[in-house]
Amino acid sequence: MGSDLSVETSLSDKELFVGQDITFKCEVNKCGASAQWKKDGRTLSEDKKYSISWGRGTKGDTFSITIKNVQLNDDGYYSVYVRHKDEKVKSTARLTVKERLKIVKPFGDVTAHGGQRIVLKCGVNRDGATAKWLRNNKQMSESINATMTQSGNEFILTIEQAKSKVKMMKELCSLKLVIDPVRILLHGPIGAGKSSFVNSLDTIFKGRITGRALVDAGTEKSFTKTYKAYRFRLTGEPGVLPFVVNDIMGLEQKQSDGAHTDDIIKALQGHMRDNYKFVPGSPLSEEDPDYISEPSLTDKVHCLVSVISADAISRMDNNVIKKMRAIREKASDMGIPQVVVLTMVDKACQLVASDLSKIYSSVRIKEKIEECHTRVGVPMNCIFPVKNYHDENCLDPEVDCLILAALIQILHLADDYLFDLYYSEGPPPKGRANSP
User: Fold this and answer.
1) What per-residue string of b and e applies to 118-142 under the rule 16 or more CB within 10 Å gives b?
2) Kindly report the CA angle at 30 between 24 and 36, in degrees rounded to 5?
3) 3-state secondary structure of 73
4) Where does the record place the Ig-like domain (predicted)?
5) Model-level pTM?
6) What integer is the mean pLDDT of 321-348?
7) Taking a C-beta distance cutoff of 8 angstroms, is the pair 205, 242 a contact?
8) CA atoms within 13 A on the CB side of 256
9) What domains are there in the chain, each with its CATH number?
10) DSSP letter at 401?
11) What pLDDT, on a 0 to 100 scale, did the predictor assign at position 340?
12) In this structure, are strands 22-28 and 14-17 parallel, antiparallel, or unpaired?
């Protein structure tokens, strides 16, 4: 007595692109059988679309169907029904047809002026695709001014162009802040460039190299000894700009050296009077005449700026990092916004040292920003790479624009914080710009 009819080689699922040919093949264990092909229950016959054939295999009859130039409507289930005398067997497989990947929503040429945001969008015909962006045939990486996002089958590149110095100065002068002055506190390890940042701001506003904040690159101790507040004015313009920058003694490894974390926290809270002289290891006490027992809003800090050297971030002592995180945690409890000014980018990257405009495309600077984000905890979009004036004897527009961009963002963050304080207690002051 012979064996029952059975399928020796089943149809297997196939996946291919539009325009290709595909063959399904099935073998049974007996000879002299007949077969019928169906797609989704509909009988198929030989024609220009389908080529149906029969042959002999190693164990019995083989049955094949070739589908030519497959299209999206050929997607479906294909079955072969084999009959031998009174016996029947069936094999089924799925054909999945996909369109070839192609761009269905291209972007065109864009002409933009300095300071404008550029958004390029590219749509493809398939979900699940990935993309990389190229600039001059070189792959781009995310940077401070370039972000790459994906929404379904659409890829988006956003480029924030650097504003011109003239536009930045105009924006700065037109700011209408909640209070005057907004107080910005600089802190960070010794030698990171806090006082140089103050001098760089003063240089930009006066249009000449200045040195109001004393610096000393030859010491391993903080050269800043007092809680010094700096105000700024534009040369040829009346009055002063609506913010003040407080420089502070640098953080050191030991709690007995450099600025004490309690002192910086007291400064955040507005308890520290301007020109207070620091005593390492002995924080300001409530009995001290420089202690402000009932600080006003203008005495308090409205934005905490950590000044860190890009060249030294990898070598920063863990105790200094712990101090900075403790100060940031207290600032966070108070709702004070926090940013990082990442200095000495020219020392961290040779490419940037030779051409400062490459700062946004420098892989090395991006790595330093990521490292700073990881170690200090500040979000990457709140870390601003800059170069302070150091050995220059004249102004550099590239240096100016980086510093001004950081300053403007700091003032916006501080103003948003102050507005929220007012808004939670009632309507903002009259004349406040951009009130809701």
Assistant:
1) eeeebebeeeeeeeeeeeeeeeeee
2) 45
3) helix
4) 3-96
5) 0.62
6) 94
7) no
8) 0
9) 7-98 (2.60.40.10), 103-160 (2.60.40.10), 165-425 (3.40.50.300)
10) H
11) 96
12) unpaired
pLDDT (tens digit, 9 = 90+) per residue, 185-239?
999 998 899 999 999 999 999 989 988 776 655 445 555 678 999 999 888 788 8
In whole angstroms, what is the distance from residue 372 CA to residue 343 CA? 12
Residues 301-335: b if buried by 16+ CB within 10 A, e if exposed: bbbbbbbbbbbbbeebeeebbebbeebbebbeeee
Tokens 């002995």 label which residue? 282
Whole-number Å distance between alpha carbons of 273 and 259? 15
Per the prediction, the chain carries an average pLDDT of 87
Peptide bond into 181 cis (omega under 30): yes
Residue 141 has pLDDT above 50, yes or no: yes
The answer to whether 162 touches 401, Cβ cutoff 8 Å, is yes
Asked if 24 and 93 touch (Cβ cutoff 8 Å), the reply is yes
Query: For the residues 369-385, what does the mean pLDDT come to?
Result: 93
**DSSP letter string over 4-16?**
PP-EEE----EEE
Element (H, E) at 84: strand 76-84
Helix, strand, or coil here: 243?
strand
Q: What tokens were used for 399?
A: 């240096």
For residues 45 and 434, which has the higher predicted lDDT (pLDDT)? 45
Nearest to 282 by CA among 306, 294, 266: 266
Q: In sequence order, which residues have a C-beta less than 8 Å from that of residue 407 and are 6 or more positions away?
A: 172, 201
Q: What residue has token string 């536009």?
A: 167
Residue 160 has pLDDT above 80, yes or no: no
Q: Is 53 helix (H, G, I), strand (E, B) or coil?
A: strand
CA-to-CA dists, residue 59 to 8, 88, 316, angstroms: 8, 17, 75
Distance in angstroms (rounded) separating the CA atoms of residues 398 and 354: 12
Tell whether the model's pLDDT for residue 163 goes beyond 70. Answer: no
Query: Using one digit for the tens of pLDDT, what is the confidence trace for 26-52?
Result: 999 999 999 999 999 999 999 999 999
- Token pair recorded at residue 29: 């264990």
Both tokens of residue 318? 């863990």
Q: Are strands 338-343 and 383-385 parallel, antiparallel or unpaired?
A: parallel
Element (H, E) at 170: helix 165-174
Strand duo 117-124 + 154-160: pairing: antiparallel
DSSP letter, residue 143: B
**Residue 344 one-letter amino acid:** M
CA distance linking residue 296 with residue 131, whole number of Å: 53
Q: What's the Rg (C-alpha) of the chain?
A: 35
